[in-house]
Every structure is written in C-alpha cells, then in structure tokens.
Amino acid sequence: MNLKDKVVYITGGSKGIGYGTAKVLLAAGMKVAISGRTLTSVEDAAKSLGTNSNVLALESDVTKLIDEEKAVATILAKWGQLDVVLANAGVGNFAPVDKMTEEEWHQMINTNLNGVFHTLKASVEALKKSEGYYITLASLAGTNFFANGAGYNATKFGVVGFTQAAMLDLRQYGIKVSTIMPGSVASEFNNHVPSKDDAWKIQPEDIGELVLDVLKMNPRTLPSKIEVRPTRPDLK
Predict the structure, then answer these.
(1) How many Å apart are CA 125 and CA 130, to the nearest integer?
(2) pLDDT, tens digit, 9 for 90 and up, residues 174-218
(3) CA distance linking residue 92 with residue 109, whole number of Å
(4) pLDDT, mean over the chain
(5) CA-to-CA distance for 34 and 29, rounded, in angstroms?
(6) pTM to 2 decimals?
(7) β-strand 84-87 against 31-36: which pairing, if any?
(8) What's the rounded mean pLDDT across residues 131-138?
C-alpha cells in the first residue's frame, strides 16, 4: 500500500499505543483521525501530533455504535475516504472472578469486545470501497489466561476470535484483517504512569512501526495474527 495521503482511524488515540501509532503513521505520510471519550484530551493529543490538515480529533465512545458511525461519517466528510482502521480502545479491570463486580465485567465487555464490533460495523462499507485494512489491538491475554484476569481474558480471547472470523468474512471484498497481540507495553493502560523503569517493555511507537510494516507488506500476504512481546523481560 502506498501510504501517502491514505486515511487511518485510530480509536483510543489520545495516549499510549494509539497515540504512538498515530505519530508513526503521520511520519509515513498518512492522514490520521484519533478518537476518545473526552474531546478535550483528544484535541490536546491532536495538537501535539500535527496540523488540522492531517490530524482529526473525534469524540467517540466505542461502546456506542452511533458514536462510531458519526466518527466515520466525519472522517469521510473531511477526507473522502477511509483506508485503515485500528480498533485500539480498551480497558482492564483485574480481580479474582468471585470479587469482580458486574460493572467491571460489563465495562470490559462493552469496550474491549462490543467496541471492536462497533468500530468495524461503522467502517466496513468505507473499507470495502478502499479495499482497506482493519486491525484490532488484542493482547497476549487473548491466548494466555492468568489469575485475576477472567474478565480481561474473556474479552481478549473474544477479540482474537472475532478478528480471525471477520478476516474470513471480509477478504472476499479485498479487505485485509489482522489482530496484534502485544505483551507488556509502556503505556497508560490501567492507570499506569510510564517511567524509565518501563524501558524493558514494548514502547507504543514499536507497535506503530509494526502496524506500518504490516501496511507496507505485499497485499498478497496477510499477517492475520501477530504476537509481540518484550525481548528481555528479565531486565525489568
């Protein structure tokens, strides 16, 4: 894919993996729309990324299909196309299953799992026109279960399964579908504050470089499920 002036939409793009990926794709010549639940934080992120002509800030709660439909409509009104979608928005609540609240469970299901469906549902017709790319951000928690992770594991296993099935459904339209499954990332996820102690972890821009590599790959080849982890976790 020639990425110059191609349009990408990144959910959860005001910080962390979404923001790091936006920086990398902007540097590659793409136009980038980022969204989040709080418009002020998304606008602040957009201002630090670039100009009005190549960055678009959107307020959207991925738990609501209508929000994602409005976001995609705004992108199409501004740039006339949508070539890549990165469904990145996610939350994590970690507790033993007997201690987890109903609210915590549904927050993860609604954001991590329903959200990726809403984002795809809202963008799929535009992606058919562009024969574009839909990428979900899952996690190694989508293949490795762990104590205190019942809810989070359930959503990320679900994201992996959803994305792989969607890949089979949508390839007939020329849409390429992949899921990226990172291990430990130095981001603000789960209220973490990144610091120098996170140097051993995957950095958000590393995921951006991976997305860039995927987009540049010959279109006859599809890396449909990608696991990525820190090289030296023993350095923490």
Answers:
(1) 9
(2) 999 999 999 989 877 666 677 888 899 999 999 999 999 999 999
(3) 10
(4) 94
(5) 16
(6) 0.95
(7) unpaired
(8) 98
